[in-house]
Specification:
alpha/beta, two-stranded antiparallel sheet, binds zinc ion
């Protein structure tokens, strides 16, 4: 009996990418993904309490609806941001492998996490289409892909919404934000994006996707230009939260 196309492809993939856990390197019995049960159960999910606006988790106990200092003091252009996991531990390890080592086979695991977050944190009617935070063109050529666009495209398929590929463009390179303070990050991304096809977003409610959100400066600047370009609302979903 001949193998189905899918089974043959899966067998080839097993040879090309042995089923070792992307978190700990041990064998994985999970037929669907590339994380073993130990690593899956160690994923640091974002849990309450967190800021009602930007989703930033806080330590300790809060019994009332809470908005963080940044969302009170700064101008926030997105309606609401939510993230699936904290950017630490096994989640950070897998996301770094995906992004910097092109371990693209872990994407199905990441897709499930992001989709689960969106399903639980947003209603179906809140977004008309999905967009992604763009990379600067030279950076994307160097890496070979834009991790946010891969996640956004997969999420759009799962949500059965259009993915507005390339609707945003990064018009200048921005130095890495890792060692910058929050105000420096905001200045770093100011004016770094433009809307390429305003006609695509006129009056649309958008779900903007990025891989990691730290201070929120990048997604906030993207939300600002999307709204300036005609978007009615911008919601933000990121896989991880720093
Ligand atoms: Zn593992
Ligand atoms: Zn906040």
């Amino acid at each position: 009996m001949s193998l189905s196309w899918k089974a043959a492809a899966a067998r080839w993939l097993d040879m090309a990418y042995p089923r070792w856990c992307a978190g700990c390197g041990g064998p994985t019995a999970d037929a669907e993904g590339f994380l073993c049960w130990n690593c899956l159960s160690a994923i640091p999910f974002v849990q309450l309490p967190f800021c009602a606006r930007c989703g930033d988790p806080i330590e300790g106990r809060v019994d009332h609806a809470y908005t963080c200092y940044t969302c009170t003091a700064d101008e926030i252009h997105f309606e609401r941001a939510r993230s699936a996991v904290r950017y630490r531990g096994v989640a950070q390890q897998v996301l770094r492998a995906f992004k910097y080592d092109a371990a693209l086979w872990v994407q199905s695991d990441l897709d499930r996490l992001l989709h689960g977050c969106v399903e639980s944190q947003f209603t179906d009617l809140e977004a008309d289409a999905v967009a992604a935070v763009p990379l600067y063109a030279a950076r994307e050529r160097e890496r070979g892909f834009n991790q946010a666009a891969l996640l956004a495209a997969a999420l759009a398929r799962r949500l059965r919404k259009p993915f507005l590929s390339g609707v945003l463009r990064r018009i200048r390179p921005t130095p890495t934000q890792t060692h910058l303070t929050a105000p420096q990050r905001a200045a770093n991304v100011k004016g770094a994006f433009e809307v390429r096809k305003p006609v695509w977003i006129e009056g649309q409610r958008l779900l903007l996707v990025d891989d990691v959100m730290t201070t929120g400066a990048t997604v906030n600047e993207c939300a600002r230009v999307l709204k300036e370009g005609g978007a009615a609302r911008v919601y933000v979903a990121t896989l991880a939260r720093g």
